[in-house]
Amino acid sequence: MAEAGRPPRWKILLAFATIYFVWGSTFLAIRVGVLAVPPLLFAAIRFTIAGLVLYGWVRIRGTRSPSAREWLRVSLLGVLIFLVDYGCLFWAEQRVPSGIAAVVLATIPVFITLLDILVLGTHRLTIRLATALAVGVAGVAVLMNNRFSFGEAPIDRAGAAALLIASFSWSIATILTRKLQLPASKSMSAAAQMLVGGVALFAAAAGTGEIGNFHIAMVPVRAWLALFYLITAGSIVGFTAYLWLLHYESPTRVGTYAYINPVVAVGLGYFLGGETVGPRTLLGTLLVILSVIVITTMPQKSAAKIRGEEGTAGMQPAEGK
Fold this sequence. Notes:
This protein is an all-alpha fold. Helices cover 69% and strands 0% of the residues. It has one domain.
């Protein structure tokens, strides 16, 4: 029997499975989409629709809209998370396998911890933490080193650079999230950030010529299915499961998605996406995941803890992607 006030165990397990596997699968869905639709436009459609649905839902439930000052703050986070982070991710997945993209973005806890230590000075660098950070950096180096590829195809350097920018942008947004006074409702904060991010992505798509060169009749059915999956399962269902879990489980346990998602993404990329998984990918993935596990399970005084959605939208940022 479930404890008083606590849902049945199967519901908890189902919610965990959702953020583990749905968010892990979004990387492959993104790649399917951006190979047929311009990346910034594809991201803009996804987050604008998801943001509108989420915003409407929380408003119907009686949550007030953000104040003018709160809109300014969520706009800053929306640009960092959706325009920069997701914009770079969607663009990079035209050039980089989805599994590797997921592993590189799993380094976000590494970047956040480095910012905490080097910029904010809020955490002390211990031997254990220094080792974990070094292992994470080594994992990224293995993935991106084309001189020792162990027989795998070289990683596109521009795509790899975009993924690192994405990770760094998300990390900055996480730091700012701790400092800024945002709407009390995390759902409203996420919806507002998605909406701002979606509008910013549409502007970027227009500025880069993506909208002008886009021909809707040329989009295959699989791209529309990928978009539908990203909006419903990735952003709405996954985000709802994530927030629900935070009511019943510790942030550390919920945050385990950070090192499960890359494994899921690499596996799906191999079995369903036809992506190559060789010694380089396996070694780089192992090193990054070990680093993230150590960092995210250390006491708060020693390391920054990540909570969030593919991710979700920047409450303590977010979405598995």
